[in-house]
């Protein structure tokens, strides 16, 4: 089953589950209780912490973190496990003769606009952020459903994040829809 966040990020061929960590958790949980779901594929936009990832490029992931900026600066801690990895086969990440960049995705209800946080995330090997993905993997884990995500980079996580997101969002959604339509989702 292909799912997306919803609201302004509704993507053709995908079922909306909700925006942010809480809505996505609740929406996906309800969906999994109502329907038999054999595999989950999340499609959505993402911001890049690292400038070497081109805007409007596609990335793929089965690994996510849930790290807030205060954790990066040493201003907070968590008793929760803030890393999750799906049990999806890595073979999924090769689409025909194409191999999408495999990334670790961070999820937060806030969009990063701080270059110091971006640099710390890159040093930790976390290169993109998407609000919902950690929640999706966590629910999928509870239901023992293989899951992964395909993301289109709309912006860099810097002071221009919102402006660039708005400018690239329509093109990113179209790129994801084209990818799905061309059989990119297995």
From TrEMBL:
<dbReference type="GO" id="GO:0009116">
    <property type="term" value="P:nucleoside metabolic process"/>
</dbReference>
<dbReference type="InterPro" id="IPR000845">
    <property type="entry name" value="Nucleoside_phosphorylase_d"/>
</dbReference>
<dbReference type="Pfam" id="PF01048">
    <property type="entry name" value="PNP_UDP_1"/>
</dbReference>
<dbReference type="GO" id="GO:0003824">
    <property type="term" value="F:catalytic activity"/>
</dbReference>
<feature type="domain" description="Nucleoside phosphorylase">
    <location>
        <begin position="17"/>
        <end position="179"/>
    </location>
</feature>
<protein>
    <recommendedName>
        <fullName>Nucleoside phosphorylase domain-containing protein</fullName>
    </recommendedName>
</protein>
<dbReference type="InterPro" id="IPR035994">
    <property type="entry name" value="Nucleoside_phosphorylase_sf"/>
</dbReference>
């Amino acid at each position: 089953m292909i799912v997306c966040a919803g609201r302004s990020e509704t993507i053709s061929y995908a079922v909306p589950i909700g925006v942010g960590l809480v809505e996505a958790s609740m929406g996906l949980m309800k969906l999994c209780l109502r329907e038999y779901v054999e595999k989950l594929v999340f499609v959505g936009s993402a911001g890049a912490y690292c400038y070497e990832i081109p805007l409007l490029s596609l990335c793929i992931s089965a690994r996510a973190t849930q790290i807030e900026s205060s954790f990066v600066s040493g201003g907070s801690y968590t008793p929760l496990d803030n890393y999750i990895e799906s049990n999806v086969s890595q073979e999924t990440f090769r689409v025909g003769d194409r191999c999408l960049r495999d990334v670790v995705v961070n999820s937060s209800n806030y969009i990063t606009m701080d270059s110091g946080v971006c640099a710390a995330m890159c040093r930790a090997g976390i290169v993109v952020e998407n609000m919902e993905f950690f929640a999706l993997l966590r629910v999928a884990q509870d239901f023992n459903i293989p899951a992964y995500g395909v993301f289109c980079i709309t912006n860099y996580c810097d002071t221009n994040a919102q402006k660039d997101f708005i400018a690239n969002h329509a093109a990113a959604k179209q790129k994801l829809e084209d990818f799905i339509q061309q059989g990119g989702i297995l």
